[in-house]
Fold this protein.
Amino acid sequence: MTLLCLANCKREERRFEEVSPGTNPGLVRQSDLQIAGGVATVLANTRTPYDDNAYAMNEGKRLFDWFNCSGCHAQGGGGMGPALIDDEWIYGRDPSQIFNTIAEGRPNGMPSFAGKIQEQQIWQLVSYVRSMNGAVRSDAAPGRNDDMQVKPPESRTTPQPENKVRVPTQ
Amino acid sequence: MIGEFQPPSILDAAGPFSHHIEKLWWGYFIVLMSVFGVVMIVLLFALLKRRPFTPDPDFSLNATTERRALNIVSGSVVITTIVLFVFLVSSVITGKAIATVDDPKAVHIQVTGNQWWWDIQYQDSTPARMVRTANEIHVPVGRPVVLQLKSNDVIHSFWVPNLMGKRDLIPGKNVNSLLFQVDTAGTYRGQCAEFCGYQHAKMAFFLVAQSPEDFERWMNDQRRPAADPTDDEAQKGQHLFLTTTCVMCHQIRGTIAAASAGPDLTHVAGRLRLASGALSNTPQNLADWINHAQQIKPGAKMPSHRLSSGDLNAVVAYLETLK
């Protein structure tokens, strides 16, 4: 029984290179901040390959730092760019929509990273971004940082209620 | 020399500091082997000269034998204490000799460990004269070298057996430094000596000790930014490099590529090895590394790319111009 459980455990699997699911060769760019050679966007409702994989999400966390996502999204709290730790999604909460947001870029600031970041790495970023607001299993989401924390670890983040409307109080 | 570098060995010292360590090593070795030999001879003697056991009903002690036994035991204790004290003093003297330098001509280099490669930065009071490279350290013979050791992720350890002992690179702390000097010109292989993850074994580097003139020439070459390529294929490669995934992590001084997550590639074609010592630096290996990095070093932060053979040839042609 234990062996069966271990054999089915996807959490620790390290898939170093694989072809990403659901690629769609027709790229629509919605941001002119970068002009690079084309890489596919994904079809709607493609299943994300890494939501249960701790290694891939940690890689996503590393890339989030390497590619300076925090420059605008400020560790997920939001700054020049929108916050990622809440459950408000301007361009959709579906994993394939997040993928396309990163790949195509979005108006008013989000650059298009298609061709600049490999598809597998974009998927790792998608799962990490989802872990930031508690949308993935907490036993696979990244634990605490090695260095100083600016927010609770992703594995301790609880899912935000959907369609939460914030009313400014007087 | 085996192949292109000296066989790594602490018994093949190439500088004054490693000579101290080598001498200490031989001192310990000779004394300890003599002690081992004496103990074995005594044991053998006791084994061969054993007498039949005759129980004494009164448990009486023979005064002469007892005194002799006491003398032997206390004599051995005194000798052991003296030997250990000599060890202690010689170890302290060696430690002192290899821990200090007072030389304004010393070369200062900052070495940063990453999973799984070495980031090398030559310090200079003039920023424009600083040099950044990766996995290869050039030093002049006869001048002391001071390394400032840092780490970006986990604990690594810097070790060139022919030159000096090991020293750890601790993340979050810039306190460790390492001092050595090379007197024999040559190429020495170094290795990460602290288990640091999946590709720890493939985290090597090369230390090239050369004459002061050659070293200055090398430094001046390294200070130059990369020249723009002239032939069509290399120009296409440069365009690909600057507009696709490469530019997200690597730096080539003289171009817009300025990221610092991966090794600096400004003079990559002039290096001895690729991928932190894993491959010799040939165009074929470079192409393999770009398209199959995850088969050569699984888990490395360099992803396998899926460049078409035309694009791959162009990128390799461009990188080969970066001497």
User: Anything to note?
Assistant: The mean pLDDT of chain A is 79. Chain A touches chain B through 17 residues (CB under 8 Å). Strands of chain A lie at 23-24, 41-42.
